[in-house]
Amino acid sequence: KGTNAPRKRRGVEVLPWNAPYKVSIKTQKRIQAASSNLPSNDPILAATAVLDTLLSSSPTKCNAANVVCALTLSSKTLNQTWRGRSCATMQERAKFQSKFYDVCRILNHLVDDDKLITRQLCNAAWGIGKHVEYGDEVLLNRHRLATVSRGSSQWNLKDQYLGVDEEEDVIDHVFDSIARRMIGRLNDLIKPTETKSDRVVKTGELSMLLWSFAVAKPRDCPPGWEKPRQIERLNEENLPSQNGDVVTYVEQLEHSGSPAGVSSDNPKERSVADRLFDAAALLFCQGQGSAVLQSPSKEQPLLLQQCSWNELSNIAWSYATRGAYNSSQGEAMVTFFAREATRRIHHCLRRVASDERECNILPRDAIQIAWALGTMDADNVSTASPVLVRLVDAMHEYWIKTPIGNRPLKSWTCADLTQMATALSHGRLDNQSVLDAVYDEALIRLEKRGGNPGRFSAREISTLMWSQARLYLTPKYGHVYDKFPSVAARALLRRIGPNSPPEVLIKAQEQANLAWSFTVLEDYRDPSVVSLLQKIFSAASSSRDIQLEHAHQLWQSYYLLSSECPTAVQNVPSEFVDYLEQKWKHEKSRVKNSSSRHRAISRTLDLMRVRHLNEYDDVDVAIALDYNSTWTHDASDFETNGERSQVKVAVEFDGPHHFTVMGSNEEDLMLLENGIKITPRVLGHTVLKYRLLKKKGWTVVRIPYYEFDKIPIWSSMERQRYLQRKLKTHSEIRFSGVDVSEYSKLPVTRHSRFD
Prior knowledge:
about 750 residues; alpha+beta; 5-stranded antiparallel β-sheet; 28 helices; about 10% strand
């Protein structure tokens, strides 16, 4: 691969990888011509030739620009491989991978020696990021760690030697080196004294850099999850599961970071990649807080305001994919980006109204920002929800309200419709006008009406189904939600065909989502739905591996379908059912911490002398009553042997994340102005939980936050009265010697503070 010894050139010693421009440009031309000089146009072979040309050149005839060129050209060549156009053998793929790692090692040394300017660092990161994006077709088995499960304990063997090739860490090392170098340069740019031209960074370059880190180092937990994904091998030893040890594999996409997969807000715990995102956030907003949207000088706008629509959306997507918004800098920057997007949409609307000039905003750009905000809300970032409401309202006015015609979203792609539904479901946003438009357009395309090009993939159909179930969009809210599940099931069955295995088209994630969604919506009337559920459970039970979260979804679905629609699960093997049930019980047996509101309800019940248990059998507050009880102070201990008949009462507190968030569109505001009360809708996963509890024999008493939080924290007697009404008791409560409260149903002409 060439000698590393320095050579003399006209009396000047030329160091390796430090060739002058005229020498390196010749190497550059050979690299660019390498892919076109092959007898075969296979992208893997072409990319191998590009990298091999660099590696076979003398290091004294190359510099950093040649390394960056080889990586970016290789990634562009491999674009066809990502589309399934490569026929390279495994040996040819292994050869390419080996050369790719060699180039990454060279790049890592050059970055450490500070041989790359800012633009080259961004381009190099983009080139490596594209290779990672192509997945297993190019790079196999990155960061696959083992975890041994025994009972309820787990031991992470990340630090043990598992025979993992050292080459798998090369990409991480080079990205960390680039991050450290860029952090210093971005921090210099934040300072007003920085004037060096080679330290200037363009918004497009920074967008590429952040996108690359998000692709190469994404979060390892989906939005709202507490733990990383866990995959368990289904075999004779653990199906049904016995007491033996089970080896499970956890996809660990980064060695550092918080256990939940979202970046920690503690600076000492934040990885170098997280600190890069923080530095970029400070640079975009220049530390001006909410004033970032008001540029102090027209001659020198803020970096945020210089971003194109595409750059705004890519950067917001990167922060959400990385989970880098769990810091004050990242959280503020994503919300500022959303406000800037909202401002631009309103500016376009005003321009259209004044001089009728069109603004061409791509739906994808605004949708990706909405998706980022929805992801933030799913991770309990409180600032995301109000910003998402305003952004979606602006999108509604631009794409749905203003256009003329009955198909306002006809120009949206299938991916746009799916991502918009996902954004609203993650953000719990009940903007009925936008949801109706999305599902109306999706239904038209699934029914092949309207002649619109584009076809939903099986993944997109399952995502739309999950979004409908998550927001609990039943036929009560529109005819489209009555038809969509059946039409979606028929579309998937047509693609599977009568003889094709369903797992070929519908992957494990889609199988679990579809089974869960149909169960939440309780839509089993159409035979197509029943047939699809049968195929889903058949594919899941015959799978070699299963993700534990998918097992939990499948158990919830099976448990309810076994009584509500037994035909759908009549052929599920009993061993698989036992396995799902055991994994569900194990998940529910973990220690849970009560929230402050749960504890407040428990203290109130103590004052009422009502015996109860906290966090019992997946119930927030559990009460056991004998059938002949006249009042809840007769509550007793829970019977485990069934000698005494008991009524099991589950007091469940439903916080804000159990309900939708109301949109601020004109229809909702008009209802509020006319004095019509709008109650937030319960989400699908909460509805499903209560159905599971009822089937297990519990009587569920729900305490919604929008009622309980109205009671002042110091008013313990009012809280007791409230719980008395909720529990529908008929015995009097004595709060003091003179204060007596007795339950009595209010007449229809009177309203309480909760009405």
